[in-house]
Records
---
Amino acid sequence: MSWDSYIDNLQAQSKDASGGAHVDKCCIIGLDGGASWTTAAPANALKGSPTEYANIARSFKSKDFSPFMSGGVFLENTKYQFLRVEDDKVVFAKQKEQGAITMQCSKTAVVIAHVPEGMQQGNANKGVAAIADYLESLGM
């Protein structure tokens, strides 16, 4: 099964009333170890390193977000400032002039989306939640 179609689906879920997408790139990683479920092939794929993905997965799996709080969230060699965590399953982070990221876990995966500077993170949050909730409904 190819997970890459979920990238387009997430972007579609983040569109506002005028049809503009608020997510420019995204990915899905496994909660157990951080292996990438989506490939780097699509132009709109988020291309984090295996180490970055493993660190993200580790924090979500253990529900210990203190590494994000003290050292930030790293994705694509960019450090994002941790903003907050909600319900031990959604993390928000931002880097001035780089944009923001929203991450949400399901039972077996973490859905990650990048929001370009100037776009609305709230729209991205809806897209990420739609995919994560769908995976959750499948027992994933």
---
Amino acid sequence: MFCMVVSSLLCLGVLQQFFQDGARIEAAFRKYFHRADVQQKEDSVEFIVCHGNVIRYFVCRALQLPPEAWLRISVAHCSVTQINIHPSGHVSLYSLGDVGHMLPEFITR
């Protein structure tokens, strides 16, 4: 019985962390991924350094892909992903997990 209680408490902790992290990641998506203001005259660029899972989430969310698409995406450590949001709201994925700037022996996943 003790093992079941401990196991249940651990699961609750993991679920609680999941929901806290999920809300934080969604808030970051809403902060950085949006159309430019109509008065904006020049391009704006945001550099976001984050965990690969967050990158995968941002890509799926920006491209309006189903959540299970996340499982089919892989990004290497220190890779570069470029998402462009045009004034019309059209979203383009220019690069995903690009590692062309790295020597092959340093590429890991």
